[in-house]
Amino acid sequence: MWNDFVTQFWPSTIDGLTNGSIYALVALGYTLVYGVLRLINFAHSEIFMIGTFASLFVLDWINISGPQTGLALVGVLLMMLAVSMAVSGGSAVLLERIAYRPLRKRGASRLAALISAIGASFFLQELFAIWQGRDQLSIPRVMDKEVLFNIGSGQVRNDKLLVVVAAILMMIALDRFVNGSRLGRGIRATAQDPDTAVLMGVNIDRVVLVTFLLGGMLAGVAAMLYGVFFELTQYNVGFLLGIKAFTAAVLGGIGNIRGALVGGLALGLIENYGASFFGSEWLNVVAFSVLVLVLMFRPTGILGENLQRARA
Amino acid sequence: MLLEVEDLRVHYGKIEAIRGISIAVDEGEIVTLIGANGAGKTTTLKTLSGLRRVTSGSVRFAGEDITGVAGHKRVTLGICQAPEGRGIFPGMTVMENLDMGTYARKSPDHAADLDRVLTLFPRLAERRKQSGGTLSGGEQQMLAIGRAMMARPRLLLLDEPSMGLAPLIVQQIFQILKEINDQGTTILLVEQNATQALQLSDRAYVLETGSVIKSAPAAELLDDPSVREAYLGGAAAH
Fold it and tell me: SMART domains, per this entry (chain B) (predicted)?
């Protein structure tokens, strides 16, 4: 066990960071919506799933079935990214309009919204199962996977590096937006005190819309990266990943944007270290043990709530 | 009249919290609503800011019917409120909180507003970078009023600005309210401990269980034995 852990340390670290980056991007969607509406958007995993299909479809449309290089590769990646972000972002906005806003307007309880979320999740999964079948679909390889350099015994592959770098860039962009733009201020104000935000002229409906749009777009980025890295999708591809991303959000402190990054990377590392220690079949057990332990001993997560910070 | 409220009714679920209130505030006045807990003072202010839906009746502001106007649009019309409990955004700095007052303006050319607010409340200038949640109660109240002033309101709504504050600070804050009013902002004030509020005000309404039971110039209410008994702690007011 210990020896496996030591020999696998660097490979586990690299895989942990890669998986963790995808968790973190999806976790942001949970955290943003929770921060503003105090709602766990359980259909967020399906927003991710829809993004993976968007990536698959776009490759189909532009007729890409093999690895690209140079500018063509950049073009294909950007196109997958743009379409996945647009489709996932649009789906998230639609989801809010159909499944949540009517309830919110009638002052329904959060429990009702939660049930609506679970219903929307099943609906979307089954929709894709009926439309695209229940089998796993492979996403064509768009880039040759090459080892760029080694860290210890770990090989840093180009697609893994792409995942981590893209995720970090998105995090920085989001942080800039939330802390630097006018609408970002509106989001923070709503998260901290919705009534007073209205008194200051914040349009809550618009804030909620933008929040879902942002979360959806980030899930779209995650979906595109997932497609490039794992090269497959399925109607239920969001299920396990969604729960893990939610775990990551709780681990980092739900409602906390930087917490989602920390939580995602931490979860990715912990489950991969755990897998190298106990064997890879234990990976998910380790991941969800983390969720239980966090909820037991530090329910506010590593960084605690921050988007609203100690809201009365 | 700057603000005219006519026969306003507001429900909280099935309970009628406001039962046909009519009040008016003229440009340049300071008007106070006094009354016990649960009299409907806070609900009235929330309704004026568009946070509560009106069952019946009307609210007119500067000659325009705003009864159905969404809350976030009322700031632009010229109504801003420093709410009950101050409503400071705890995770934002003092400056960020003040900036929120200019949120409704698309082009926040607020250097002059900031100057004015920091002159009224020099304390806020010292605390500029501190986060709102770490301020003392008095400082938070100053921030709440300053933030509302950043919106350049024609009508400033204040919900219990004296709540939980030491008498000396209350005096200081009321002094500043007088200054704000002298500079041309109309003020509608809600207070439970009303002596100081009445001394500051031109007129006042007494609310009881969702209705106006008395309306008179403030000086008159200060001398009214029944009002003094019920709302001014009984003792001589001046």
Answer: AAA
